[in-house]
Amino acid sequence: MNIALIAHIAVVVGFTIRLMLRNDLSPPARLAWIIVLILLPVFGTIVYVLFGEVDLGREARAKQRSIHDEVHRAAGGQLMGDPETLTDQISAAFRPVFGYAASINGFHPTTGNQGELMAHAAETRTRMVADIDAATDHVHALYYIWLTDRTGTEMAEALMRAAQRGVTCRVLADGLGSRGLIKSELWRRMDAAGVHLAVALPITRPIRTILTSRLDMRNHRKITVIDGTITYCGSRNTADPEFRPKAKYGPWVDIMLRLTGPVVAQNQLLFASDWMRATGEPPEALARPCPPLPGGFPAQAMGHGPTERRSSTPQLFATALACARERVTISTPYFVPDATVLEALCAAAYRGVTVTLIFPQKNDSWVVAAASHSYYRRLLQAGCIVHEYEPGLLHAKTLVIDGAACLIGSSNIDIRSFDLNFENNILLEDPAIAKAIEARQADYILASRQVTLSDVDAWPYHRRIWNNAVATVGPIL
Predict the structure, then answer these.
(1) Is 385 helix (H, G, I), strand (E, B) or coil?
(2) Cβ of 4: how many Cβ atoms within 10 Å?
(3) What is the pairing mode between strands 327-331 and 354-360?
(4) Which of 111, 109, 160, 115 is nearest to 139 (CA)?
(5) Exposed, middle or buried by CB within 10 Å (0-12, 13-18, 19+), for 143?
(6) What is the rounded distance in angstroms from the CA atom of residue 372 to the CA atom of residue 389?
(7) CA gap 141, 238 in Å, rounded
(8) What is the pLDDT of residues 129-172, one digit of tens each?
(9) CB of 92 within 8 A of CB of 271?
(10) Is the CB of residue 344 less than 8 Å from the CB of residue 375?
(11) Are 435 and 370 in contact (CB under 8 A)?
């Protein structure tokens, strides 16, 4: 037996034992890693060391528990929402999904919220800048990607103007997604103007990050809060639709809600927890109650990440799908579902719900595109309707149930959003908002091509083999 073979066996056996000892892995993910390690032991070992472990370690878990307890203590009961709202204000059909959402962070539905769907990227930028210019107390902004293009620069300049007139401005940018901004003159100008700056999950010490965490574990949230009375939630980063780093996939098509009412405080608390994690600054001054608005609707915020209960997001999607009686329409740019979500989609279609899925026709991730296509046959055979958006990269993450309940935010339907990223979403029940989002989804469909089962049957063998091969390691993508 030669040395190479002995080393191969040692690597496979050693990492297989490690995989078998992990309680956080699903059986498909465990099997996918074993296959990779057997077929590509050197490459697989490197990839596993870099990306295989999700556990942040005891110290990080203890720190997160401390932050969670401190934020909840500072929030008190008023900002967390009222459990009784579930039965008083939420329709019986949707109580399961609102109830499940409350179990993730402890945020319960709040009443008296109002919302407005932004028409397009330019309106989002204009309204957000105007709100910041009107701020009198504080502005908090957290984004995964913040570029130094027109949108990023105008936002930064509005924050600088606010800071110079005495408004407390805090900006939290992800260390990887916003690395260009963090190294830029614009970042230094914000600092000089008095904007409080922090980096979420910095990558300045990559070796330590690899040894204690993962480089690809990111803060994917998109949150802006102004004066504790206005918040924005959706898929848009602080970047132009042309998205210069990946311009060939543009325009990036996003969606954003502007919300007022008590749910703003819950988004504020998510920001507070991330700010405290990055800076250690206590959260007392980072959240305040917002009174209910007349004629408003019930809504609640939720945040998910590797420090929260595992599988919360796929279980949330599955619960939402189980609530549907007539129709559910979903748009997402990245579709690599786990078994929980895939089976829930198929089950909804089999029981007569019209399940419509809208994906981008061209994806900036060829790996995700291939894995996504491998699920088309199952979905179509179950009766789901699949559309592929053609004009650009559809980046909007939306879910509308029976024209009444909506989920909107930063979460994709993929393993990365489920297990690795810190995400934020808002769940609400309001026919007017639902109608507006459904109208936007209809616009996406008009610019899409429907994929049929005959289309999938016509795919050549090599494409089907490739899609299924990539999907085999989908659980670890």
Answers:
(1) strand
(2) 9
(3) parallel
(4) 160
(5) buried
(6) 14
(7) 10
(8) 999 999 999 999 999 999 999 999 999 999 999 999 999 999 99
(9) no
(10) no
(11) no
